[in-house]
Amino acid sequence: MNYYDSDDVSDKAATQFKLILSRHRTSAEAESAQYHLARYYQRKFYIIKRNQGREDRLSLSKARTEYGNYTKKYFKQGAKWLSDAFFNLALVYFQLNDSQKGGWELNKMRKYAGMDPYVHIDEVVWSPDSDDVINADYPAEALADFVKGNSEKPFPYLIEAIKRWCRALRTR
């Protein structure tokens, strides 16, 4: 069973990703596992919030740690999800009310956009609502600039602004 793509929050997916990381440290599979481990924890936060009505801050903290591990390990060599990781790490910081660190991650995203020029957005943040699916690639520099310019908004409004920006860009 693929625990990652389901609404499973038992950490079976995290266990699988960690196993890959321990067995294949320098492989492309390890890079993929590191990125998806971070995404799993970020996704878990939203699934628990929807299903249980509570904010699982520990999952958000783990997402922050794992995105940080990804960007630290892979930024010098260029990576498949470098801009995506900077973007999602910035969102985690904004959600944790640390706009300064969120801004720093957006600055890094912009600085290293030459290594990974696009961010793929399935959904800005996980949602069971099919209307929230975006599923497109966006220029990392432009996305970083937009988010930074709107980062003073409360987090839910920031997410809605990003969704509108993505949809407007996609329809051009």
Account of the 3D structure:
- The protein is 63% helix and 5% strand.
- The protein is globular, with a radius of gyration of 15 Å.
- It has one domain (12-170).
- The longest helix has 25 residues, at 28-52.
- It contains seven helices and two strands; from the N terminus they run H-H-H-H-H-E-E-H-H.
- It starts with 11 loop residues before the first helix and ends with a helix.
- The protein has a two-stranded antiparallel sheet.
- With 172 residues, the protein is mainly alpha-helical.
- The model has no long low-confidence stretch (mean pLDDT 92).
- Helix 2 runs antiparallel to helix 3, helix 4 (82-95) packs antiparallel against helix 5 and helix 5 (99-111) packs antiparallel against helix 6 (140-149).
State mean pLDDT (0 to 100 scale).
Answer: 92
- Helical residues, percent: 55-70%
Number of helices: 7
Quaternary state, please?
A: single chain
- Sequence of strands across the biggest β-sheet: 1-2
Compose a concise summary of this entry.
The chain is mainly alpha-helical. The chain contains seven helices and two strands. Strands 1-2 form a two-stranded antiparallel ribbon.
Topology:
Elements (H helix, E strand, L loop, with lengths): L11 H12 L4 H25 L4 H18 L7 H14 L3 H13 L6 E4 L14 E4 H10 L5 H16 L2
Antiparallel strand pairs: 1-2
